[in-house]
Amino acid sequence: MEPRREHPLYYLDAETLLIATYVWVDDELKALRAQGVRLPRPQRHQKATLAELLALAIFITLTGQDLAKGYMAARTTLRPFFPSLPHLSRFYRVLKNAQALLAHLALRLAQGPGLLQVVDLKPIPLAHGHRIHNLSLPHSAVGVGPLGAFAGYVLLGVMNERGFFFRWAILPGNARETWGAELLEGLPALLGDRGFRWVPGVKTPPYRLRGGKSVETGWKGWMGKVRNWIETRFSVMVRSLGLHRIASRSFEGFLARVNLILLVHNLIRSRLLLRMAGVEG
Question: What residues contact 170, with CB distance under 8 A and at least 6 apart?
Fold first, then answer.
């Protein structure tokens, strides 16, 4: 088994992946209920259980499908597993109400900070071109990303040395690195790029002031390779999990989609589904 090939679809067929996902979600929800955690109340006349709908959302994200198209296809192709599924709008409503639960599950997988942390910003564009003036979601703003101007948000993610995101925040699209200083308080051994040089506690590469003076920061050569790892993890969320194609009409729905993607990312990193399927010891 190659360490770099961590996605479950390299080793499991779709049916086994779906079953392992449902078993994991169902066990997690039962454990939370036993601990006294209040789960989202079911919708009126809800056709499927919360565990079934969350497992289906995770499965669709794992397979790289668009959430809406994947759900509509699942109503026919996955009927033997989910004989009765609600309308797409109700499915979205369940996910929106479960956005805090999705974040909680992602944090349980991350297991908190490690010996070394990495922080970075990732733009999440929701509109480009002339459409940037029509985006009216709360707290969204116009910023500049790799593809030019966009309207949307920025994900401030903090990753431990095991590759799990254990802290994150959604900021306006025009956010600066210093806006996330409060989220980073109290974290030891924190690495970031030069944009974080004014954030207390973050070690960055050497930088130059306007007068040309070079400021040494104690940056070591190996730190660059470690810091670049978060770029790789962001790329996985964009290419494989659809972070770049989120479409939402509400801020709560947007949060639910981001939390779902972070949960799936941490689930892939944990290799938990492979162990449940008996592929990895």
Answer: 124, 139, 153, 154, 155, 156, 254, 255, 258
| 240-to-4, 45, 144 alpha-carbon distances in Å | 14, 34, 23
Contact status, residue 162 vs residue 85, Cβ threshold 8 Å: no
Show me where the domains of the chain are located: 8-109+272-276, 113-249
Instruction: Kindly state the greatest CA–CA separation across the chain.
Output: 68
Q: State residue 248's pLDDT score.
A: 87
Q: What SS3 state is found at 25?
A: helix
The span from the CA of 161 to the CA of 232, in Å, is 13
Q: How far apart are CA 161 and CA 117, in angstroms?
A: 6
The residues of the chain scoring below 70 in pLDDT are: 1-3, 281
The structure's pTM equals 0.94
C-beta neighbour count of 170 within 10 angstroms:
18
Q: Which residues lie below 8 Å from residue 95, measured CB to CB, with a gap of 6+?
A: 53, 54, 57, 102, 253, 256, 257, 260
CA dihedral over 64, 10, 99, 49, signed as positive or negative = positive
Whether the Cβ atoms of residue 143 and residue 172 lie closer than 8 Å to each other: yes
Distance CA 281, CA 270 (A): 13
